[in-house]
Amino acid sequence: MNEDAATIKDWADRNGLMLNTAKTKAVLFASSQQRRFFSDADVPPLIVNNTIIPLEDKVCNLGVTMSKDLSWASHVRGVCSRAHGVLHRLPYRAGMLSCHIRRELAMTLVLPLLDYCCLVYLELPEYLVTMLQRVWHVAVRFVFGLRRDERLAPFLERMGCASLEERRRYFVGLQVYRAVSLRRPHYISEMFQRRDTGMAPQTRSSSLPQLTVPDSSSEMRRRSFSIMGARVWNELPLAVRNADSVPQFRRRLRAYLASCH
C-alpha cells in the first residue's frame, strides 16, 4: 500500500498537483470471509508525506459510499436518507399542486437519487432492495395523496415509469450496448468479449453476438458489472441487441422490459 501511495504522490508531483493528506482517505477492501483471517490492526501504517493515513471503515467518492467489507448497506442507507429528506419537504403546501405537478416533482427530485450509480450495486440483497422500494412507495403516496394502508399497485402503474429493478436492468443494457457496439468508453468495452471469437469487439457490427460470461469464484465477483452486464446482454433478444443506434436501442429495450413485466 505504501508503494501504491508513493506512486500516486509521484504522479501528482509530475503533473503539478498537491496531494492533500488532510483529505486523503484509505480503506482496505475485503469480503467478510476474507476479513476472518486478518484485521486492520495487522496492516502496516500507510504513510504519505510523513503523515500516517488511518484506515477508514468506509469512504465516499462522487456520492458513492464504499464500505471496507464490500457491502452496499451504507450507500443504500445514504440514498434513502437523501430521498426521505426531499420527500419530507415536498408535502409543504402539496394540496395547492395538481397530481401532474406532484408526479413531475417525484420524477425529477426523487427518482434520480435512486438511479444514481445504480450500476455499481447490481443484485442487491433483498433487504436493501426493499429499502429502496419503500422510498419510492412514499413518493407514490405523495403524488396521489394516499394513506399508508391503501393498495399501491394501480398507482405504481399510473406513475408511468418502470420499477427500480427494471430501471437498473435498462441502464445495464444501455451501458453494455455502448461498450459493445460503439466501444465507448474504452475501459468498459475492454471488459466484454464476444462469445463467438473470444476477442474483444473491434468494430460495430450489424449482428452483435452474445458475450462470454467470465468465471466467478465468489458471490462478490458474480455481482460485478463485467459479469452481470454480460448476463443481462445475453438475455436480450437479437432484435434488441441489433439496434442501429442508441435511441433505437433505448426504445426496443424499454418495450422488451415492459413486455417482461
Describe this structure in words.
The chain is mostly helical and 261 residues long. The chain is 49% helix and 5% strand. It is built from twelve helices and four strands; from the N terminus they run αββββααααααααααα. Helix 7 packs across helix 10. The longest helix is centred in the middle third of the chain and has 19 residues, at 126-144. Residues 200-217 have a biased composition (Polar residues). It comes from Trichogramma kaykai. This is Reverse transcriptase domain-containing protein. Residues 196-220 are annotated as: Disordered.
Describe the structure in brief.
The chain is mainly alpha-helical. It has 12 helices and 4 strands.
Low-pLDDT windows of residues: 201-206
The number of helical runs is 12
Total strand segments: 4
Order of helices and strands: HEEEEHHHHHHHHHHH
Q: What portion of the residues fall into strands of 2 or more residues?
A: 5-15%
Give the mean pLDDT: 86
The spatial strand order of the largest sheet comes to 1-2
What are the main properties of this structure?
261 residues; mainly alpha; two-stranded antiparallel sheet; two-stranded antiparallel ribbon; 4 strands; 5% strand; globular; Reverse transcriptase domain-containing protein
